[in-house]
Each structure stands twice: as structure tokens, then as C-alpha cells.
Specification:
CATH topology of the largest domain in chain A: Rossmann fold
Distance between the termini of chain A: 39 Å
CATH class of the largest domain in chain A: Alpha Beta
Structural class of chain B: mainly alpha
Oligomer: heterodimer
Largest interface: A-B, 39 and 32 residues
Number of domains of chain B: 2
Strand content of chain A: 25-35%
Number of helices of chain B: 18
Helix content of chain B: 55-70%
Number of strands of chain A: 15
Helix content of chain A: 25-40%
Strand content of chain B: under 5%
Strand order of the largest sheet of chain B: 1-3-2
Largest sheet of chain A: 6 strands, mixed
Order of helices and strands of chain B: HHHHHHHEEEHHHHHHHHHHHEE
Mean pLDDT of chain A: 82
Low-confidence stretches of chain B: 1-23, 306-346, 384-391, 478-494
Shape of chain B: globular
Distance between the termini of chain B: 14 Å
Low-confidence stretches of chain A: 1-34
CATH superfamily of the largest domain in chain A: von Willebrand factor, type A domain
Strand order of the largest sheet of chain A: 8-7-6-9-10-11
Amino acid sequence: MPAKPRATRTAARQIIAGGLALTFWAARVPAVEPDAPRNLYVSVERDGRPVEGLDPTNFRLFVDGSPAPVQLAPQEQPAQVVFVIENSSSAEYYRTEIAAAMQEFEETAPEGHWYALVSFARDVEVVADFTRRKENIASAFDSMGQSGWQDISTFDAVYNVVGKLRRIRGRHIVVLIGSGLDRYSERSLGDAEKQLQASDVTIYAIGTGTLLRRQYEPYVFPGLRMSEMQARGVLETLAEDSGGKVWFPDSASGFADAMRGVFTDMALQYRLFYAGGIPPDGKLHKINVKIVDFGGRAPGYKVRARKGWRAA
Amino acid sequence: MRVQALTAVLAAELVLLASIGGCGRRTTPPATPLTPTVFQPLRQELNKSYAELFRIAPTLEYSQAQIDSMREYLKQAEDFCIGRVDDRADQYEKQLAAYQEKLREPATNGGRHNLHCEIQNTRAMMNQAKVLAQTAIPVSYENRKAKLDLIQNWPTDLKTIKQQIASGAYRDRRWGNVEDIGFREVASGQEDDIKTGQDAIRDMKAAGLMPRAIEDPEVVNYVRNLGARIASRSDLQVPLHITVLNSQEINAFALPGGYLFIERGLLEAVENESQLAGVIAHEIAHAAARHGHKLMVRATISSIIYQAAEVAAIMLTGGVASIGIYYAMQYGFFGLGLVLNLNLLGVSREYELEADQLGIQYAWNSGYDPSGFINFFDKMASKEGYVRGISWFHSHPPFYQRMVEAQREIMFLPARPAITNTREFQQMKRALARVTAEARAEESEPNRPSLLSPEPGCPPPPIISFQDQRQVEDVCQLNPEQLAPRHGRSLRAD
């Protein structure tokens, strides 16, 4: 069995696994460049539970179908976590639920990371720039005004925030809380995906669609229901593209659970490290990660990692 | 190393530009028009506070010709000063265009990053120079000229005031019935403003124009208690809501309906409780007299916000930024008030004089030394801190008229024991120091990432400033050290 107690992942082993390559990495700008070394954060689950204690021999990495040598490295600290929250006029209906998620963040999220808050409806606004003080983010959320616009620019929000993060060194997490609907963006979903694929950002999405549907279900016509399903698909796509995760809670406690899930998942991710160039051909170069035990088998592990890289 | 090199280049540019004369304005410092034995003492008088000048002006003996010569000198000095800083702004603009031209050339990632940093910081310096030339320096010289007017005219005005007091005519002035404060009607329909104020707050928040609120209970409770005390002894007939904003701007503003906003920079700048009471009373007076309602209709709020949004959309690349923070970044410490305060609040000469009068009455009626307002005004107009509170003065009535009217009102009020300071004020200052230290510690953390910087990883944009305890017009003097860039808000991202 490859699964071992987390305690066995000693700092010494991680340092050896990271090797000298980490020194080189630290001096590099981590935005995806054709010849840059790669950081790949992956989550491993089995039977719906996170698997801890894996070592480098348990991972098999394939880039465009070809095996690539891989090492384990300690997670970059501190991470930069950006909450990107929809505040369109319709978001008012589930403000309480989002507030529950933000309260959970304030109470349980780890100290030491950098946190920022961005809101979006028609426009995208930085409500609070990066701070280590969680209470500042909570307070900024509390004072965040409700937009009068029904227009929603989900794609622009993702595109812009990821674009900003690409230019900053460190581990990047986006917690996207919204419906996934988009009625106003200049950018398309494809643009947002390409931006994401050219970055090292992981998106965790907490969908408000379940609540939205409940609010409108008696009145919706098929076209609107289809839009809501598509919006759900948008959030799934963005999370899957980046190796993140998506939740669709239907209650305040569900939102709080989802927020807790974000930070649990973040904490348990493995940071794989490999040297691999990305040809500047504009194509998506696919990543595939498998878990094997010493016999080379892959007995039922589910690996979540980004789909691939695309050179900027 | 690269950061140091870039900073050194910027400093060198400043020194170089300081040696270039202005264009279309006076390019040489004006000669002193008076003999040193007259010029130096008169110049020193202009550095004194209004309170002191009100006291000593009747004893000063300057001739009409001497005062006229000094007035002409101040005019020429202002012209020279603005010319120099204007010229610097032009030079930065040209430099900016040259850097932007270089963007057309192919560059490595590192070279492109350095170019972006150059553009970012040159743009910030250009904007600061423009604000200095267009607003800060003119107002600073206006303050000097007002003190010259005071030396010239106050003795006569004082005689008139004393005659009005002796004859009892002072009771006939507008709002002279101070014994009826709270029972007279300064403006009817104050309650109708509540919704307007709420709408304005919502719009400002939605547009990202409202800084974050301070939550420290010692600071917030103190300010709210002080505001409540003054409001209860004023003509305000609607509930007062005070929010303390975590912004370094020296500013306070009232939205219609009793919504008062005090910025952290103001609490840092006031020296005693009577000064803070004077400012709060002034803002309460705006609300009680419904000045906002008279000039700020909803269409105005929207148009200002959209105008600001349009500017931000043009200037920003990347699309993500709060408009308020954008202005703070681009203009150093000028912040929210520079773009919004006066446009939104409908400041006019008439209303400002009325708010001065009523505010002095409310501070007095609350037991405070009513000259706290004048003392704070003077401190702000004379010292470096003034620049951070620039919006508080912009387009207000002429300083001399404002100060004389304020002093006249103080002299008309019945004398009574007045509070200047309290233990609670000192406790608030200590609590505020903690809040400020926390805010500054994080702002200056070298590895702090930022979503707001157009180009992360650049050295902080220099702040064109002047040394502590110097006058704002010192930026125009020959010593280039006075224009040396000083690092301000950290915009570093890695």
C-alpha cells in the first residue's frame, strides 16, 4: 500500500526530493514560460478520502503521453489566495450563504497565507488587496456593496485575476464563488481557459446555482434552466482545467463546509516538480498523473491535477 | 540590485529636472522686494499661526507699500514655483512617451518588466507633480496671502467687531440665536436626505470608492461618542451615523442624511479633542443645513462615479482595480477626496462659510474651544500634512475671508469654559497608533504581493515630497534634495 501516515513525510525527505532543483526554481519567475521548470499541485483521493503520505516513487507523470521524471517538493509558502465573489443583483439572494462561507474562512483558514478579495458583477473590482489578516478580508466582504447590475462577467473576472496572478511569484489559489453565469464579459470562456492554462493557478469553485435554481425554479422556462446548467458546467470546467475542485452547496452550512474543503484540499495537495519545456505553439500540452504502488499497479486512486499547460 | 539601480536613475532624473527652468512662466526666483530688515521679519510673520496673528496684528507696524511689495513678491514666487513643478510634470510626460515608444521594440521578459516599472513610476511622479502645481502650491500661497491680508486688514475688522459687540448688533447676524441651537430650524426636511445618503453610500461601495472601515472598538467608540455629543448639541434632527475609514487621507466628509465619514489620517493629524470636535462639528453642520441635498442629486453621484470609472478604464491595463485605490496609487496620498469629495458633496463658497459658522457654534455649544477649528485649519494649510488633506481645502472660500468670519463668530459667542483636550482623546490616540502600525507594517512588507500594481515587482513609486516641518513651497527652492524621491506605499509584488 502506498498510503502512509502523513507524519512519515519528513522535512528531510522532502528536501531530498526537491533537491537542488528547488534552489534553481526559487530564482525563477513561475509564470508559464516555454523553458521554465514546472510546479504541479495534485490531489489524490481513494474512496472519496484524501490520501496522504505518498512518495515520489508512487507518482507517474506523462506529458503529452510521454513519461517525465518527477520529484516531490514542499508546498510553496505562503500561498496567495484570492476570493473572487459574484455580487450581481441576483447574488443578493444568497448573500447569507456566502457570508457563512466567509465566516468559516475567517475562523478556520490557516494563518500566514496572503488573502485578497475581488468582486465582480458587470465590472471586476479589487475589494481588498493581499493581506495576511483574515479579519481584513472578512471586514472587506461585510462592507462590500451589492452591485445594481444584473450583468455578470465571470469570464472577465477569471481572466483578469489569473492574469494578475501570473505576474506574481508564488503558489496561486482562486476561490471562485458565483453562479457561473456570464452575460457581459468581453472575454470568452475559451479566453479564460487559455489564461488559466498559461498559469499555475488552481481554481476552487463554489457554485451558487443550486440556490439560484431553488429561488427561480417555479418560474423558469427551459432556456433559463439550460443557462443555469451551462453555468454549472463553466465552474466545473474552470476547476477541472486547473486541478481544483467544485462544490454546489444548497445551504449555509454547505457553503461553510465547501470553504473548509478548499483549505483542507490545499493543505493535502502534493507539489510535484519536474523539468519540462512547453513548446510555444499555442497548443495545450496535456498532463496525466497516475498513482502506482511498488508493483506498478494503480489500485483505485483518483488523481486531480491540471489538464495541461499552454505556453503564454 | 535592479531595484536600487532603478531608484538611483529616478533620483538622478529628479536632480537633473530640478535644474531645468519652467516654460511660459517665471524661470528665475523673484528678487526680494524689501530690505532684509523688513523682508525677513514680515516673512516670519507669515509663518505664524492665524491665532497668533489675530492677537498680534494690531501691534504690527508695516506700511501699505511694504505689504503691497510682499504681495507682489508672493505672486511672483508662486508663479516661479508652479512653473518649476509644471516643467517637471512636462518632463515626466515626455519621459513617459519615450518609454512607451520603447514598448514597440522587442524585449526580453526582464527588459519588458523593467520598462513597465519605468512607465509605472514615471506616471506616478508625473501625476504627483501635476497635483502639486495645480492645487497644492496655489493653495499654500493663498494661505500666505491670507495672512498678509490679515496683517493689513484685521486691525480695522477688529474695531468693527468690537463695535458690533458693544452695540449688540452682532445678535442680528444670521444664525445669531445660539441659545436656540437644537430648537431652531436651519433646514427643514433633513429626514428626506436619509435615503439619498444611503443610496450614495451604496453606489460608492459598489464602485469600490469606499475605503475599509476601522473596527478597533476604542477608536470607533471614541469617535462615535464625540460625534453623538456634538450632534446632540447641534441642529441635526436625524440620527448620526459615523464610520471611521482606514485611509491615510486627512479628510472627513458628510453625506446627506447624517452619514459622516472620518478618515484615519484625520485622526492622526489632529492634536487635541477641540480640533477634532471642530472638524466633526463642521461636517455635522453640512448635514444639518442640508448642503448635500441642495447640491448633490442622485444624477450627480452617478455621473461622478461613472466619470471616475471611465478614467480608470482608460488608464488601467488589466482591468482589475478599485477606482479609489487607483487614485491613491497614482497620486500618492491624495486618495478618495481628490476625485470625489467636493464634487460629490457640492462644496460651495456660501455653504462652506455657513458650515464654518454653524460648526463653530456646535463645537462651542458642546463645550469645546471653538478655535480648535481654526487651529487645525492653520496646521493643515501650513505644514506638510496639508497636502494629504488637500481635498479639504480645494475650492473652498478665500482663506482670509474664512478665517476672519470664523474668528468673528468665535468673538460673538458668549465666553464659557472650554475643553481643549481629554484623557479619552489620548487613549484613542494610543489605540489609533496600533491600528496605524498594523496598517503600515503590512503596507511596507517587502514581499507583499499586490493585485493592484499594474506591474508587480517594481520598486515603490517615489513620492515627490518635502521634508518634515518644511513649507510646501519649499519644493520650489533651489536645493534639489528637497525634491529627492521618498519611497511611499509599497507596490511591490514579489
